Here is the input.
Amino acid sequence: MNNIFKRQKQEKQNQEDIFLNKGEDKDNNFNNFEKDKESNKDKENNNGFKNAIFNEDDDDSKKMSFIDHLDELRKRLLVVLIVFVVAMIAYYPFHNQILHFLTSGFLKTNLVYLEIMEPFFVNLKIAFYCAIITISPLLAYQIAVFIAPAFSKKIRKYMAIILILFFILFAAGFYFAYKFLVPISIKWLLNQGATLKANLSVSKYVNFVGWFLIGGGIAFETPLVLLFLIKAGILKVSTLRRQWRIVYIVILLLSAIITPDWSPVTMFVLAVPMILLYELSMILAKIFK
Here is the structure.
């Protein structure tokens, strides 16, 4: 009789254990389902972010192999190189007029050369800098056309506007550097040796002014880069607003790097329009949200 009661009690205990195990399995399955749901949601968000920037779902895009991409890049760079060489050859005969343009208005002392080969290399440098400035729009166009298929239609439709803004901003940066940066920088630096007689090397002077002009054009592309990153979803206006102190410090560092004289005066002269352009890009990003 005792054995029967023990057996019944054991069976009842087993049934309770089975019921509890089933309940735990249901809870585990429900938790796993919720986790899978969340992970799938995250994957969809990530895929949506990638598709918003990169062209992964467009069927109209032409599939190209890695070798085909390299071949296309080679052809585009070859076009830029040919135009660069032609521009250098075209600018070389006008080196005297260009040098006069680079010195008139803000340099009163005469330039000298210290080596017999220096005038020839200076003329090449003048043609080189002029060719670099000339091909910069073409280089930007070739890069934009090359990378355009990698982006989604949402980004590609802004490519034409981006290129137009690139040309305008580069020209504005060049003009700002010529009218303000170079004269202020030269005046401030020459005043540091006011009691000395200046004999400026023509080669170093051309390097100095050339990098100033190119640096001014590059610096003025700041809003364009920011607008593109904001439109692509890589950066957010709220984040840039919240971290404005860091942004201003980065702008000051970039100004110090771009200006070849490393003086605080020219650094701040370049940083002020860059900060204004940064604020303008924030306003435009909100308007064209």
Notes: The beta strands are 111-112, 200-201.
